[in-house]
Amino acid sequence: MTSPSIEPKAHSHGLGDIPFSKLATHGSFDVNDFPVPNGREEEWRFTPIRRLKGLHDGSAVADGTDKLDVDAPEGVTVERVGRDDSRIGKAGFPADRVVAQAHTSFEEATVVTVAQGKALDRHVTIDREAQGGTRFDQYVIDVKPLAEAVIVLNQTGTGVRAGSVDVHVGEGARLTLVSVQDWDGDTVDVTQHNAQVAKDATFKSIVVTLGGDLVRLSPKVAYTGRGGNAELHGLYFTGDGQHHEHRSLIDHNLSHTRSRVEYKGALSGKDAHGVWIGDVIIGEGTTGTDSYEHNRNLQLTDDTRVDSVPNLEIFTGEVEGAGHAAASGRLDDIHLFYLRSRGIPEDEARRLVIRGYFLELINRIPVEQLRDDIMAKVERKLAAHE
Amino acid sequence: MTKFEIRGLRADVLIGEDERQEILKGVDLTINSGETHAIMGPNGSGKSTLAYAIAGHPRYEITEGEVLVDGENILEMSVDERARAGVFLAMQYPVEVPGVSMSNFLRSSVTAVRGEAPKLRQFSKELQGAMKDLSIDPTFAARGVNEGFSGGEKKRHEILQLELLKPKVAILDETDSGLDVDALKVVSEGVNRAKAGGEMGVMLITHYTRILNYVKPDFVHVFANGRVAESGGPELADTLEAEGYERFVKAGA
């Protein structure tokens, strides 16, 4: 067993043995509970271990710094706290050794709190610039009941980074979390997002991964009350030699919860590698779960690689909806034909179709200026590949 | 004055890697500007293939013949060059292109065909007017190209493009199919507006005579077994209406 601790199963109801999910809803905060991975393990088999720069075997030394700039409206508090802060590590266990290493080794954490009932009049921006070296980090985002917030974590710079982002969306609250991985080309980033979605709360995660040498991001969602709704949207543009891996897990541990997972990527250039693992668990005894996940990959050149793996585990017969779809391929020549049949030259038609592919997802971002900012970043990356 | 000529056109549909089938078996047809030619025929006779082959659809390959616009063979041009040379195809099944807004698409298209970008304000006025003429709700401009449109909405947008691009030759591939009478009238009026200048030639492909009550043809051709089987005036449509395509289907078999 690769994940040694035994967490009480959230969907246990005391009626004896229940089927045990193969998917990792368990884990440990202690790095020593995980063996050093060799790359053959199920959860590591797509990741180029050698490019983790020692994050996986304890050899990485925490010597790096980040520059943080926070812009937050009234109703938001941002604190830098130490290891012993009680709010850290309450949203879920690290599911792999690197994330556990970060939890074991971090020295400082950032806690962002949105006050109860507060609907923010503008979004929170956290600009995080990695300034070299290795750094382990913890973020806690606590959106109190009935609050409404859009929070943007904009990550740039160079270095080796690992950590967790814990997210608590309180009862009836609404949070859109935009996490942008716009790292320099040599950066390594292994991060787990743990979201706890309370009764009638809505959590929207938008992940935009453009930069880095290796990005492995694992967004996980569990529910603490009925009526919780989680939407995970992801966009990645993976260029020459880049490894972008997204591993989502939705644990429908309670009845009447909803989830949508939609990840869309484009890959261009030699050895560009995109990985999407979409795990969904619909727990024993639950009813009224509504779940759908979807991954699409646009392979702009032939020398790219995509691994797309949906896993759906259902332990109940009372499901409202559960489905998945995955498709990878080149630009649709019928789309191009239609645009070109209206006189639009081929290169411009390609640009329109690729932008449209991403815009479909970007248009789900609630703030216009944010949409424009993110599209501008995507444009820059696209321009480099045309 | 434009002359649009199809000469000895043969084309295959590409089915799989090594599989293909000849659909067009030597098509000859000449359309002068201002003329409307109805192409009628049974299902599977190759009418739509003719339309798509001329436009350069990737599923079809032309094996012989030429298509000339004022003497210039457009088959030697790329798909977009053909459109810029003045050939427009209103498709039977317009393609959905997610995420590309209709207004952005139309502006790119008009810019490419006219050779210069229209002034933004002027264009948006022109677009609004053209949409109103076709009873298209203005909110469609912000939606993705054909994305989630009903069949009728797609057809209206094809004619919207026809009116904006003002081609020399318009090929309308079963533009009437799936339309109720009201929508058919709106769409036909759009075609007639585009014809009004007297410069545009029209190849109107249809299975039914119904649209010919609204868009009057000068010539009617029966298309069967991959070629023009018979040509005549508007009265030929009435004969087909009365007798059906049976005699042509038999002849082809």
Description:
The complex is a heterodimer of chains A (386) and B (253). Chain A is mainly beta. Chain A has two domains: 31-330, no CATH class; 333-386, no CATH class. Chain A is built from four helices and 16 strands. Chain A has helices at residues 97-105, 333-340, 346-362, 368-384; strands at 66-71, 76-82, 108-114, 124-143, 148-169, 174-181, 188-197, 202-209, 214-223, 229-238, 243-252, 258-267, 273-282, 289-299, 305-314, 319-329. Chain A has a 16-stranded mixed beta sheet that branches. In chain A, helix 2 packs across helix 3 and helix 3 (346-362) runs antiparallel to helix 4. Residues 1-19 of chain A have low confidence and may be disordered. Chain B is of the alpha/beta class. Chain B has a single domain (3-94, 151-252), classed as P-loop containing nucleotide triphosphate hydrolases (Rossmann fold), CATH 3.40.50. Chain B is 35% helix and 30% strand. Chain B contains eight helices and twelve strands. In chain B, strands 6-9-10-3-11-12 form a six-stranded mixed beta sheet, sandwiched between helices. In chain B, strands 2-1-4-5 form a four-stranded antiparallel beta sheet. In chain B, a hairpin with a 2-residue loop joins strand 4 (60-69) and strand 5. In chain B, helix 4 (120-133) packs across helix 5 (151-165) and helix 5 packs parallel to helix 6. The longest helix of chain B is centred in the middle third of the chain and has 15 residues, at 151-165. At the A-B interface, helix 2 and helix 3 of A face helix 2, strand 7, helix 3 and strand 8 of B.
